[in-house]
Specification:
About 45% of the residues lie in helices and about 15% in strands. By secondary structure, the chain is α/β, with parallel strands linked by helices. It folds into 3 domains: about 70 residues, DNA polymerase, domain 1, CATH 1.10.150; about 170 residues, Rossmann fold (3-Layer(aba) Sandwich); about 55 residues, Winged helix-like DNA-binding domain superfamily/Winged helix DNA-binding domain (Arc Repressor Mutant, subunit A, Orthogonal Bundle), CATH 1.10.10.10. The strands form 2 sheets. A 9-stranded mixed sheet has the order 1-2-6-5-4-3-7-8-9, sandwiched between helices. It is elongated. The N and C termini lie far apart (about 50 Å).
């Protein structure tokens, strides 16, 4: 067997324990050397306690890394070990990089400029719209959007990139064959077909709570910058931002309403020096890409032909939800006229209806 199989074997035995893996490599010289170490050597040199060493020795007897690699191939899962030329160079330089990456998809991860868009799992409609808009703009500029496929902002970011026809990478806190959250099954398949779904956890790994903070280092590690859109004071997105700073990545944030708890995170980051983001142009400028992508500019949306009533309403709508009665009051139109116009605006993809008879401009 080659080093690839031994890398895989250790990653199955020690899922999510990159630090321990690299310690073994340092002590034994190679993944193969560590794999062939005796139980006593695993204790004396590997740093395991006797019980851990006994469990590892027992598991090794029943595992055949070469067969495991063949199983992955049959499942349509690619395994890219650290020494493989396809392993993203940008990820190799982070603290405790994953020994290997399990991947579904065809995109060359690390082959293009990437930006992470992360945030709350329970965002406001404003946050969702902004995340979609930013991801769409980045995607249109040829930048890969990275996120964690969690509910809320992550999902919105992936959707925005997919709608723009660009590549997006979902970094999971479970196996790449495990759908989490379950409602994201369709979007997971879309990402796998046009981008990449990746994880350092072996197939079948469940989404255990501690997996997610650990995987955040990969989200930021794959990206030139991390953009935070809505995050509470104690949020996983802020963990990602902290890790990004440690990795030397740029951190940016979208400002929010000061009365919203979800604005605490990004507003605090801005106070601490993060770039304030109002649109894709701010991200490009911070990365020094304005000249490289001089043809990419955020322009006023080109609308389909609108009726007089529709035009009046579209000028009133923003990314902040507006109640139906407020639209009636400010437009001066009858309620039935407003409802009819809103229906057609929805069909044209310009307006989004929210629960409670609230409406907002479409984020894209």
């Amino acid at each position: 067997m080659g080093e690839k199989e031994y890398f895989l074997g250790w990653q199955i035995l020690l899922p999510g324990a990159a630090k321990k893996f690299w310690h073994l490599i340092k002590q034994f010289g190679s993944a193969a050397g560590a794999w062939n170490a005796s139980e006593s050597q695993l204790v004396s040199t590997g740093g395991f306690n006797p019980l851990q060493a006994a469990e590892i020795a027992s598991s090794r007897k029943s595992m055949h890394p070469k067969e495991e690699l063949e199983k992955l191939s049959q499942m349509g899962i690619n395994y890219i070990e650290f020494e493989n030329s396809a392993y993203p160079e940008i990820l190799k330089n982070i603290f405790d990089p994953p020994p290997g990456i399990f991947m579904r998809g065809g995109i060359c991860i690390g082959g293009q400029l990437s930006v992470a868009v992360v945030g709350s799992r329970k965002p406001t409609p404003y946050g969702v719209a902004v995340a979609e808009r930013l991801a769409s703009g980045l995607s249109s500029a040829g930048i890969t959007v990275v996120s964690g496929m969690a509910r809320g902002i992550d999902t919105a970011a992936h959707k925005g990139a997919l709608k723009a026809g660009g590549g997006t990478i979902a970094v999971l806190g479970c196996g790449v064959d495990v759908v989490y959250p379950r409602e994201n099954k369709r979007i997971m398949e879309e990402i796998a077909s046009s981008g990449a779904v990746i994880s350092e956890y072996p197939p079948g790994s469940e989404p255990v709570a501690w997996h997610f903070p650990v995987r955040n280092r990969i989200i930021s590690g794959l990206s030139r910058a991390v953009v935070v859109v809505e995050a509470a004071a104690r949020s996983g997105a802020l963990i990602t931002a902290d890790i990004a700073l440690e990795q030397g990545r740029d951190v940016m944030a979208v400002p929010g309403n000061i009365s919203s708890p979800l604005s605490c995170g990004p507003n605090r980051l801005i106070k601490q020096g993060a770039r304030l983001v109002e649109g894709v142009a701010d991200i490009m400028d911070e990365l020094g890409l304005d000249r490289l992508f001089s043809g990419v500019r955020e322009t006023e949306k080109s609308y389909p032909r609108l009726t007089g009533d529709e035009d009046k309403l579209i000028k009133l709508l923003t990314l902040e939800p507006l109640a139906l009665d407020k639209l009636v009051e400010e437009s001066g139109l009858a309620t039935q006229q407003v409802l009819a116009a809103l229906m057609f605006l929805e069909l044209k993809g310009l307006v989004r209806q929210l629960p409670g008879n609230y409406y907002m401009a479409d984020g894209l």
